[in-house]
Amino acid sequence: MKTETAPEASAAPPAAEPRPPTRALPVWANPRLGLLIVIAVLVALFSSLTPAFLDPRLTLAPLQADISVYAVVGLAQLAVLSLGHMNMAVGRMAALSTFAMGLAYDRLGVPLLVGLLVGLAVGAGIGALAGLLIAKTGVNSFVVTLALDFGLLGLVTILYTWATGGVSFAVQPSGLSALRFDTFADYCMGEVCGPRIPLVVPIAVAAALGVGLLFRRARLGREILMTGSNPVAAELSGIPTHRRVVAAHALSGLLAALAGFLLAANNGAFSATIGESFLLPSFLAPVLGGTLLAGGAVSVLGTALGATLTQVIYKGLNLLQFSLEELKLYIGLVLLAALSLDRLRAVLAERRAVSPS
Amino acid sequence: MSRRMLSRIGSGLAVLALASTTAACTKKSDTTDAEAGGREPGQVKVALVPGGSHPYFQPWKDAGATAKSELALGDVTFNETAGWDQTKQNDVLKSLAAQGYNAFGVFGVSPDNINSTFEDLKRQGFPVGSLASCPAGANKADFCLSTDVEVAAYKGAKAAIDAMGGQGNLVHLTGNKVDSNTQRRIAGVEKAVAETGGKVTLIQSVTDIDKDLQSAQKAVADLLAAKGRQIQGIVNTAYNPAVASAEGVRQSKLPIKVIAIDDDPTVLDGLRGGSVAATVLQNPVGQAQVGSYALMKLSGGCTMAEPGVTIDSGSFVVTKDNLDGYEADRTATTEALRKKFDGDLLKCS
């Protein structure tokens, strides 16, 4: 998916005063291309330092599964960044939703897909509640979702203690282990088997396509972006901005629930700790990918690439057996370098674009 | 035909194609090797993976290095980068496997879902030992070599009751309430208190204060301010509360008998200075050394006589009187554990 930008809110310059001629931005100025190059360089670097980086079964398949989870986590944050809002409860929404899924599998014995739908509904519901509170009270989304996060933290622990006496459901719904262990290479038609891509990857791809189409093609998505770009102008244009705020937060909750499900599938357990590590990566992936914190512009492809970059760095440094302190230090440094290079590329591209031909 | 209609037809066809392909597919039978075996000691690369950074696991580093040289293993590594996050620990284990490590001694972050991780490793043919903590429910690792936390908590509570003169009020300080091991520790302390026939009362079990030293210090300060004069004994079954209560009681000068856990320098200084009445030591060195030994044997083709068996790695009550001799007891227990593996627990053809 490409970058989606809301129409410019300011009026176009009058025809009598044409802007100075500018060159079109070169291809390398695309921030997604920049990320792709950084990822390619890092993959080449890590592969040359440790051949284990290219091990398909032990490195590449788990890496794809991890990227799937964190790309969807990034999309959950992107859904509200489109408004210029934040969802500080993204992890706890995932935890509450996976609790609902675990409960449905454990107590009702529902099939995998039905439990997933139950969890998605809970996620969307709690997200919509956050959106409703923000829209009705006018309180900043940061404050509302932070408060919600605290509340859900306690609620999730109480619910797990009540339902399981511990922190995890022991239930393994049919199909979960296939999602966890299998890749398409395990499924063959005659002699031809699929690629070594984990089964969770298409779920994340479908989510990314859905979100991309929403913001690019659907009226709802365009109206959310316009609300994020300039709420007053959007309101005056007849867009029901309150309902768009609720919709964007519901989408964020739904995607958080999906990320929780993918992580539960990867870990093989529906537990209270799901979502604990979601918050920072949820911002990192979209921001690295060019989504604006101020709202009005999102990049789904960039978010996927941002998630890929962080997971590649983490996996590479892990394989090189960095110590705990070194691991944190180098993840910070590599991210800083990646962001700086990206900024440098953007500045060079802008200069080149505005320089006289 | 409009572009939109074309794209809709295209997507419909793609979905149909995908559905029919999936329906026609058959699943390959699992080709992963389920059994380890046949590896010489020099080919065995052991990874000792705690749940995160914690003083308890530091002896694993040296114990692993000793095991490597004594047993002539291919390699022994110690990796504490899991950061108390089960997802990260799973990732660390996969990365270690990718680097050629083929036998795993793991302290699972979450006893409630570590079994999935153990199954994952065993599917790939790696022998796995659950070290220093057993999973909740049936153990899916080859064996669990851990302190019997209920016995250790019982011993600690008994030591506290003795130090209190057999009567008075006792407080239990421990870790994460929703951890199944914490529930067993609470059961151990309650058992010792019940045996006094009402002479000792357990007035409070304070949980969830082992996350860091600061939260433990705050909880201890609050406890001493509120109930300090009613308390005759404190039994700790977690590291941070032990350090915090030794320090808190020393500063408040209250006549409370503190039973600590492990042999952190602060705790040993407290024992020498008298602010700690006793400490319950565990056997991390034995866990790493004997765990590595058992993993080597399993890699060489031995099997467990009883798969998933739980073995107590030992716990010892240390007071000021036996402060200098406890290391010899620990070494003897470690040696006895290794013999137990050779004699009863392992089946080698």
Give the biggest beta sheet of chain A: 2 strands, antiparallel
CATH class of the largest domain in chain B: Alpha Beta
Please give the domain count of chain B: 2
CATH architecture of the largest domain in chain B, please? Answer: 3-Layer(aba) Sandwich
- Structural class of the secondary structure composition of chain B? alpha/beta
Shape of chain B: elongated
Please tally the helical runs of chain A, counting DSSP H or I stretches of 4 or more residues: 13
Helix content of chain A: 55-70%
Strand content of chain B: 15-25%
Low-confidence stretches of chain B: none
CATH architecture of chain A: Orthogonal Bundle
Radius of gyration of chain B: 25 Å
- The arrangement of helices and strands of chain B along the chain is HEEHEHEHEEHEHEHEHEHEHEEEHE
Largest interface chains and counts: A-B, 45 and 40 residues
- Here the CATH topology of chain A equals ABC transporter involved in vitamin B12 uptake, BtuC
CATH class of chain A: Mainly Alpha
Across the major sheet of chain A, the strand order is 1-6
Q: What Rg of chain A do the Cα atoms give?
A: 22 Å
Helix and strand element order of chain A: EHHHHHEHEEHHHHEHEHH
CATH topology call of the largest domain in chain B:
Rossmann fold
Main location (chain A): membrane
Protein name (chain A): ABC transporter permease
Transmembrane segments (chain A): 33-55, 67-88, 108-135, 142-163, 197-215, 245-263, 283-309
Membrane topology (chain A): Multi-pass membrane protein
